Amino acid sequence: MDFSWDPEQRAFRSTVREFLAAHLPSEWESLAHGPGTEWQSTFSKQFCGALADAGLLVPHWPKRWGGRDADPWTAFILAEEMWEAGEPRGGQYMNVNWIGPTLMRFGSEEQQQRYIPPMARGQTLWCQGFSEPEAGSDLASLRTRADKADSTYRINGQKIWTSYAGQADTCFLLARTSPGRNGISIFLLPMDTPGITVRQIPSVIGEGDIHEVFFDDVTLPATAMLGEEGKGWDVVRTALSLERVGIPRFALATRMLHRAVDKLKQSERFGAGAIEQAAKARAACEAARFYSYNIVDQRRHGITVGPEASVARFATVLAERLVGEFVVEHVPEALSGADQMLLSHHQRAIVAGIASGAAEIQLNLIATEFLGLPKEPR
Amino acid sequence: MDFRPTSDQESLVDAIDKLAMQFQQKPTEFHGFALAGHELERELQEGEYFDIAQVPEFGPLTAAMAVERLARLPFTAEIALSMLVRPHLPGDVPRPLAVVENGRPGRFVAAAKTLLVIEGERIAIARPSADAVEAVDSLFAYPMGRLKHSVDLERLSEADAANTRKWLRVALAAEVSGLLQAAIASTVEHLTLRKQFGRPLGTFQALRHRMAECAVLAGGVRWLTLKAAGTGDDGDAALAASHAQESATRIVYEVHQMLGAMGMTLEHPLHLWTYRLKALLSELGGRGGQASAVAQYLFQAPRSLG
Fold first, then answer.
1. Where are the domains of chain A?
2. CB within 10 Å: which end of chain B, N or C, has fewer?
């Protein structure tokens, strides 16, 4: 066991930090750069384009798709630095983390040629059409239909809570091709296809983050299906396992905790009560960090990641919660205009236990698969 | 970063597990608090396990793994301080070791050959004569003892005191980590076997979620402990001890709730782990003490690279 970074990893982290210093606008920290805003989406294309030119957008992807087959640690160091900086890639982090890799694994040659190069150049945004009004945690009960007619599918239904839908070029869509769990298929749907209506939902997360998406007789060629008909669930499982520890939330949470503590110290308000809570939050951030590192280490050694991914995810939720509560109690002025960076983080942190599967679903998985408790009856 | 144990670490942990096999069960006739493992201690001594941290291919990280595994046993002995703190004390001090913190009774004090006497910020070493210490009855599931009268103290320099305090934190966290794992495993067994309303308790979500949270906390303690032992960093040690005491406070409550009346009995072994954890909650200044250390080492200067 070794808890130190090797020289190559240190050098890579420095390279990423230098890139960020050179490419983030000087007023970056004072901007309300919510991940789904129009400004962020436009900026992300410029920023990700520059990342791609520097070989820093998809280093962990295969050479064929513009990467250099870098190991999982490289990908994670990159993700840590990006998230800690406030995620200047915006919604494109999804392309890098899981949409690209999922397409490489399940996509047809035509789909790969069409969709992967724009991702590798940092020029495209995707959204994830999973949740529906009646299918949240119980995702398998989704109702959006894809009816086959000759060589096309006609999509009808509704998605909700869809991040980045207002800016996305393509939707990674789950729809029902027949009843039951084995009736779910995946479609790669261009968002300019006629019949799609997107409505933004005003939210505490900030502008442009969550949406309703309606599909009225949206017609797609059968070649838009990803993988086999009815096998969508297997693809989703792969995608979710990539996403679950894809966001190093602990990195920004740690930085924001230090930022809040610095503010308290400057105004001589870092007293005993605040110290105890700050220590508790700092330890939770560090625990989340090492849980996540453990997953990266397993991937690095080719070990199939099991319920540890859910444990890592929940540890991250605990850390985000403690940092959020610390800011609310000790630096409340940050949420009233005194610190845009703390405010933006606070807006985004509420998502930690909800997006990509509710934390309570993770707790169920931990109870059964990690602790070995008997399953609850359904 | 590489989290695979080395082959040396694997073989040592295997050897520890083998040695521990015969101490896995609480003797059925034992209905007390301090289940002292004299035989366990003798075997560890004979196998020279107390000195593993000084062996270059093992080091403190492997010692922390050993402490953690041995803390899962129903039997207890003075292991953590001997393995993790003793190597960092000036000179070669005899074991067992014990801590006397601000005059309070402490674990293993009555049998200790070396005492670490903590008075506020100061730490001193003492070699108590047999009549200077005595055993005390306690609710804590360690053999507890106290200093009867003042003894000659050899005060540590500020640097040695800070270093000793750091390794005391690592030792505390490693002990807590093992105890938490044992308490959780024992509770999971109960929730799997015990049925109410016609189904195992472990199928009720109200309990499952709480146990899952306990598992997340306990695993976090383990990671922070291993990291602190591996890096020997002051901040890492403070974080490990802080997370250990925070998590133990919550988990002790939860597992007793899960066990219900069964956990109140001295027949069930749960108290051997939880009433040890309770003894550890106040050590080294408790959560406030660890928080001050975190503030001292981590919230002082701008953060460094990685």
1. 7-124, 127-230, 245-370
2. C
ipTM summary value: 0.96
Contacts of residue B208 in chain A, CB cutoff 8 Å? 363-364, 367-368, 373, 376
Taking an 8 Å cut-off on Cβ atoms, the answer to whether A1 and B230 are in contact is: yes
B158 neighbors B124 (Cβ within 8 angstroms) = no
CB B265 within 8 A of CB A252: no
Kindly report, residue by residue over A7-48, the tens digit of the pLDDT.
999 999 999 999 999 999 999 988 866 777 888 889 999 999
CA gap A115, B119 in Å, rounded: 67
What is the C-alpha separation between B155 and A193, in angstroms, rounded? Answer: 79
Q: Tokens standing for A299?
A: 């991937």
Question: What is the widest separation between alpha-carbon atoms in chain B?
Answer: 63
Cα dihedral sign, A190-A191-A197-A203? positive
For B175-234, the pLDDT digits (tens) are 999 999 999 999 999 999 999 999 999 999 999 999 999 999 999 999 999 999 999 999
* Spatial CB neighbours of A121, under 8 Å, sequence gap ≥ 6: A48, A49, A52, A57, A66
pLDDT digits (tens, 9 = 90+) for A229-258: 999 998 988 887 777 667 899 999 999 999
Q: Which residues of A touch B228 (CB under 8 A)?
A: none
Which among B3, B5, B208 has the least Cβ separation from residue A373? B208
DSSP state of A168: -
How many Å apart are CA B57 and CA A142, to the nearest integer?
55
Residue B112 covered by a domain: no
Give SS3 for B148.
coil
Instruction: Give the chain A residue nearest B61 (alpha carbons).
Output: A1
Interface test with B, best of A363, A368, A369, A375 (most B CBs within 10 A): A363
The CATH number of A7-124, from 3.40.390.30, 1.10.287.610, 1.10.540.10, 1.10.940.10, is 1.10.540.10
Is residue A352 classed as helix, strand or coil in its secondary structure? coil
CB A51 within 8 A of CB A19: yes
Contact (CB<8Å) B203/A372: no
Which of B216, B239, B243 is the mutation pick for testing A, counting most A CBs within 10 A? Answer: B216
CATH domain A245-370 topology: Butyryl-CoA Dehydrogenase, subunit A; domain 3 (1.20.140)
Q: Which CATH number fits domain A127-230: 2.30.22.10, 3.30.2290.10, 3.30.565.10, 2.40.110.10?
A: 2.40.110.10
